[in-house]
Amino acid sequence: DIQMTQSPSSLSASVGDRVTITCQASQDINTYLNWYQQKPGKAPKLLIYDASNLETGVPSRFSGSGSGTDFTFTISSLQPEDIATYYCQQFENLYTFGQGTKLEIK
Amino acid sequence: QVQLQESGPGLVKPSQTLSLTCTVSGGSIRSESYYWSWIRQPAGKGLEWIGRVYIRGGTNYNPSLKSRVTISVDTSKSQLSLRLSSVTAADTAVYYCARVRRVAGEFDYWGQGTLVTVSS
User: Fold this and answer.
1) pLDDT tens-digit series, residues B57-77
2) Which DSSP symbol is given to A25?
3) Does the distance separating the beta carbons of B107 and A94 come in below 8 Å?
4) Which of the residues A2, A14, A15, A31 has the least number of beta carbons within 10 Å of its own beta carbon?
5) How many CB contacts within 8 angstroms connect chain A with chain B?
6) How far apart are the first and last CA of chain A?
7) Does residue B20 contact residue B114 with C-beta atoms inside 8 Å?
8) pLDDT tens across A74-92, in order?
């Protein structure tokens, strides 16, 4: 099984801040990694696919990078509506989600 | 616009079988471009992938649940189903169905989720 480790587990930032979340895979997964945003009481929403591709309709302040075992998700300028929990997900071998990063406004 | 809607009992007794249905509309469940999956999320916790089914046949399950899970698809009703046997309190969660792009593994459309509580 491929394990996905996200950090930090929670994060507090101010509006306008640059926010970075990392995701590490337990083995090489190439760029087979997606990122999701989940707001309370809602289903997750796809933001980034294949490590760095922005899903249609997603604001350009969201971005992703990385390959192999180490990946980064960035919000360039945090907005109030970005408060949510963010998950990475690998698809190199079936599917595994990271444990999530809860983002709060400072 | 593709829509998915989960349905089923909100309360299941321990040791019994949890059964849920997901109805797909706005898109064909017969498309060979997608898998159809179930995912669950205990309250306050992360997402756990349960399994997937492909219209051409074939299923794959999370190894940790494989012995208890069955996922199937009924194309005539445009529905996918989940059965989870021998449930315990640890199976209490919000259960989601989702469409997965076969090529790149993205869960691009999700249902709203349904809460299933395991309790006597």
Assistant:
1) 799 999 999 999 999 999 999
2) E
3) no
4) A14
5) 58
6) 36
7) yes
8) 999 999 999 999 999 999 9
Q: Which residues of chain B have pLDDT under 50?
A: none
| Residue indicated by tokens 């970075």 | A20
Q: Are strands B79-84 and B48-54 parallel, antiparallel or unpaired?
A: unpaired
The pair of three-digit structure tokens given for residue B59, joined into one six-digit string: 């299923």
Which structure tokens are listed for B32?
Answer: 């060979």
Q: Quote the CA–CA distance of A61 and A76 in Å, as a whole number.
A: 5
Q: Collect all residues from B whose CB is shorter than 8 A from any CB in A.
A: 37, 46-49, 52, 60, 62-63, 96, 98, 100-101, 104-108, 110-113
Residue type (1 letter), B108: D
Residue B11 CB partners (closer than 8 Å, separation 6+): B116, B117, B118, B119
Q: Tokens 């990946």 belong to which residue?
A: A71
Chain A residues within 8 A of B100 when measuring between CB atoms: 95
Alpha-carbon gap: A17 to the closest alpha carbon of chain B (Å): 25
Structural contact between residues B41 and B96, judged by C-beta atoms closer than 8 angstroms: yes
